[in-house]
Design brief:
Helices cover 17% and strands 31% of the residues. Bound molecules: manganese (II) ion.
Length: 227
Amino acid sequence: MTGFVIPAPAQAQLPVVGGGAFPVRRVYCIGRNYAAHAVEMGHDPDREPPFFFQKNPDSLDASGQFPYPVKSQDVHHEAELLVALHSGGTDITTQDALAHVWGYAPCLDMTRRDLQGEAKKMGRPWEIGKSFERSAPVGPLHPVSDVGHLSSGEISLTVNGELRQSGDLDQMIWKVPEMISYLSAYFELAAGDVILSGTPSGVGPVVRGDAMELSIAGLDVLRVDVV
Ligand code: MN
């Protein structure tokens, strides 16, 4: 019998509306998945192949507080729909993809934009801008059995009550089934994997003291205070 030689890290998890917790294995994030956001970041909105980066499971944080991170003076909000999978596999077809979805949650892909910008300029990976501590504030997960599948409806974010981001889930360039199918061609997806599905236009900076509110049609509002 062998045991862990150090204490085992806590299992990353998301709270579930109605009780219980969803264990998280991997966090995939898609880039530039709304045309208006691609344009605001200086890119052509044409449908080029999607691309992904990852955050770490323990980047997810349901505390309702976002501690302003170190080493950045330009931290941006990105309002996103999180998709949680209860099963996976490889080479999943778009027709079969939604059968793997367990639920949906509102999530913020917080970004150290200055560090991400330097990384982009130098052709380096994005992790330093994206995958820092508590970089993915998240609300409780809503089971598909309660809310169905979300393919349209408002997604918006206010800061201190002022509208900053506004779009519709139907504006995603790559829809949820397409993202699952595409990812499963390159990775083996599994139960516990979650996907952040991209952000509409209007990303911008926050400062300590700001209150962010993310609304997605059909889900509870997520409020996150920058501390
Ligand atoms: Mn994002």
